[in-house]
Every structure is written in structure tokens, then in C-alpha cells.
Write a structure and sequence with these properties.
Length: 297
């Protein structure tokens, strides 16, 4: 049986001929009701149960990156989130994932403090780390990786998968729109003046055409090429962006499709320098191939 059934709700998708989004799960995708963000700069506290597809990746018990749930065995994150300080891929047992998390303070040692309102978060180990074959640690190209869990994810009202952007015309559908970026990272670029967020943050950002993004970087005298496999999102005037420890986290449209993975940029929320994300639609085929291969092994 194929692990890739038709996408639920607003998406009608064939496994290899996606029209709107690719669902890699038999569970309805989405993250509850979306409302109008490395902690998110310029964001707001999400509401409990609003963003159900995000996971916190931890090392030595501390949050350091985000990830997105794509089905009952796999998470999707940035390639640089699976690299060590010496630019080698981490071992799977060095990373843990916390799912269903809302406030960091509610979770401690695989235990939810219900007195603080925690009601559904749990921790899982990783079996396999699969960075994209074209990814090199500390480089921005192909900044994407899949994480296989040690056991099946227990889907609950606060833990659900997200549909993935796919299809040849995906770019035309997202550029010029707004999207939501989420995470528990810093709320300002200077980490000496703040800390990571306790409550899951979200922010609405604009998705720019690559050519427009390159032009903005040139005007700021920091010229760079935005590859077809990347996209830019933020605010032209700055003030709203992902930041440190939001890496690997999701950029999602208002109709609950994952279009980007927090990847790189210049600082956090600087005017004229939108954040740079891995463009998920360019990797839909690779994602399907990897999950198929491991499911068959």
C-alpha cells in the first residue's frame, strides 16, 4: 500500500502529479485555525493548539532548531540543523524531538507539567538522519534534511502533519502572498539582550519573488544569488523575521501548506534583508523517494 494517499481537505493530489500540495500521511493535514514567526522577531504568541505540525529539536536537553511533521514516521528540517560544530552530520541518538509542545516551561525530561497547562507534548528519539545528498555542512545550498523517528508518531489534536508544497507551478502560487513562520527562537538578533521564547511564536511575513529579493540585497550592498531552490520571506521594512534557533522551522501558507524551511539570511529582521528559506516544492520528489526507500527497507 502506498504511504501517500490523496491529500485531505482543500487539496486533491496525486502522488507524482501534485496540483496543490503533497500529503505524506493518511491523517488530515494542517495546523488548526491559522490567524492574522532562529524566537521570532516581531511575532506574537500563538494560541494553544493553533500550530500542530511543528516539533522542537533538542540537543543535551535544550531546544536549538525546529522541524515539521510530514507523516507518522518523518520530520523535515534544515540540513544545517543536523550538523555538528565541526561540520559533520550528527548521530541520530544526539537529537531528540518534542512534539505537541506549546510552552518550553511546561516540558522537562519527557514530563509535561499539567499544573502549568501542558496537555499533550511528548519526546521521541531519532532512528535515522537523511540530509539531502547535495548538502554540505555550513553551506546554504540544498539546506534540507529528513528525520526518521524511532517509533510511529502518536497523532493527537495537538500533533498533526502538514501538507507539503509541490508541483511545477508552486512558485507562482506562493510569491506575492503572505505566510506564517513559527518557532521558539530568539526575539532579537543580539542574543546578549534576550533569550529564546518560552511560548511558541508566530508571525505573518510577505513572500517575495527571488528577483525582487536579490534586488533588495543588492541595494543593501550585500549582493547574493537566490537559487531556484530557495525563497525569501519577511518584511521589506524589516522588523518581522525568523531568528536564531528558529532554523529548520516551518513557513506555511494560510491554507496550511508547507512552502519553506527556515535556512539563512543576514541577521534577524533587518530592513531590506528578508529571511532566506529552503523552497519545499523543489524537494518534493526527493522527500517521496527517501520515505519510500526507508519504508521498503
Amino acid at each position: 500500500m502506498s504511504p501517500f494517499p490523496p491529500c485531505c481537505f482543500t487539496f486533491t493530489v496525486l502522488r507524482n502529479n501534485a496540483q496543490r500540495g503533497l500529503l505524506v500521511s493518511s491523517v488530515p493535514c494542517g495546523g488548526g485555525q491559522q490567524q492574522q514567526q532562529q524566537r521570532i522577531v516581531g511575532g506574537l504568541d500563538s494560541t494553544r493548539g493553533q500550530i500542530t505540525y511543528i516539533a522542537s529539536l533538542t540537543k543535551r536537553g535544550g531546544h536549538y532548531c525546529g522541524a515539521s511533521i510530514v507523516n507518522d514516521r518523518w520530520l523535515l528540517t534544515a540540513g544545517h540543523c543536523v550538523c555538528s560544530g565541526v561540520n559533520k552530520v550528527l548521530r541520530a541518538n544526539q537529537i531528540r524531538a518534542v512534539l505537541g509542545l506549546y510552552r518550553m516551561s511546561e516540558f522537562a525530561g519527557n514530563r509535561i507539567d499539567r499544573a502549568l497547562g501542558g496537555d499533550g507534548a511528548y519526546e521521541m528519539g531519532l532512528r535515522t538522519i537523511v540530509p539531502h545528498p547535495g548538502y554540505v555542512c555550513n553551506k546554504p545550498s540544498n539546506d534540507i534534511a529528513l528525520l526518521e523517528m524511532t517509533q510511529r508518531i502518536d497523532f493527537t489534536p495537538s500533533v498533526r502533519p502538514i501538507c507539503l508544497s509541490s508541483g511545477a507551478d508552486a512558485s507562482a502560487r506562493v510569491e506575492g502572498r503572505t505566510a506564517v513562520v513559527a518557532g521558539w527562537g530568539w526575539q532579537q538578533e543580539n542574543r546578549n539582550l534576550g533569550d529564546k521564547a518560552d511560548t511558541l511564536q508566530r508571525a505573518v511575513v510577505d513572500v517575495f519573488r527571488n528577483e525582487e529579493c536579490e534586488s533588495m540585497y543588492r541595494r543593501g550592498n550585500r549582493s547574493r544569488t537566490i537559487a531556484r531552490t530557495q525563497l525569501c520571506a519577511g518584511k521589506g521594512t524589516g522588523g518581522v523575521d525568523a531568528c536564531w534557533a528558529d532554523s529548520g522551522g516551518p513557513l506555511v501558507t494560510s491554507d496550511n501548506v508547507l512552502i519553506g524551511i527556515v535556512s539563512t539570511g543576514i541577521g534577524c529582521a533587518r530592513p531590506g534583508f528578508p529571511g532566506i528559506y529552503t523552497r519545499v516544492s523543489e524537494y518534493a520528489g526527493w522527500i517521496v523517494t527517501v520515505i519510500d526507500r526507508f519504508n521498503g527497507s
